[in-house]
Amino acid sequence: MIYLDYQATTPLAPEVAAAMRPWIEEKFANPHSPSRWGSEAAAAIEVARDQILTAAALDEGRFVFTGSATEALNWAIKGTVERSERRKLVTIATEHAAVLDSLEWLEGKGYQVVRLPVGVDGLVDLEAAGEAIDRRTALVAAMLVNNEIGVIQPVAQLAAMAHQFGAAMLCDAVQGFGRMDLPEGADLIAISGHKIHGPKGIGGLWIRKGFEPNVLLHGGGQEQGLRSGTLSPALCAGLGEAARLAAERREADTAHLEKLFQVALATLGEGWIINGSSEMRYRGNLNLRRDSLDGARLISDLRNFAFSLGSACASGSGRPSHVLRAIGLSDREARSSIRLGFGRYTGEEELVLACRRITLAARDQHYLTA
What we know:
The chain is of the alpha/beta class.
């Protein structure tokens, strides 16, 4: 199988597996235990925390481990509004479900939620943002790199608008952490392990000093008094090593992705249209469409190639992507779109093979329906 679904999850890096193995096997102690073994496990978690903070290159903040980026985003949103008297929240219409569903839940409790529109390029309308963010706003939430179409949002500009009125800025950096600089001005930043060649089941929230959300999970306060639950030294070590490796390999990974991006476009050939901005995008995400293509059928026809229609969280719903609808695509155009995701371990030859097969299968569809 040729794997082209890097936005859904990334292959575990061998270095990460090696870093995790001792804490899965012989060093299995509870890191919150006062025993010597427990202290060793706790020390491993702190090493991982330092690796993540170093990779993030952010000052004046701390990093709190969570079970996922979804948990981190829920905590950041709900915990921030709980500590604020303000009742307004601003986000972008193309955000991940973890943000949109959390805000919809708050909307049901009487909060005002503004969902900012995007243009055909997928980028937020900054003029609309300027009109929406005001002194009633508690939080602005924006994704750094869109998980479906790969566009890079101007988070720093949104943060400046938020701070002008004393609002907090939350950034979902799941698809961008380890691959680009994190945005200036963000007060809360969510990340995930399995999107940077780390393990599943681990994520975290970077918190600027003074922006600590109210506690979401109660129990023992094991994680800096802000989150309860026994931490997994193996998962924390895995995320730490993945972050360290991403920072170390960032230049090489970036160059590799740029080459793959150009190779994919050249191999796919004419007839494909990129969804979202061609310039302001992460090069490891190629979301594109073709007239009269049935994306779901294409995936079914090419079972030896792993790619997707969009977000793994929304797959199987039968509804067109909310992101593709937000950039103005019709339901038919959305269903004719596919997402190819590639990265560190994608070979140029296998990508060429996959793109050739995808284009041939897409042409066959056209001939059969013509």
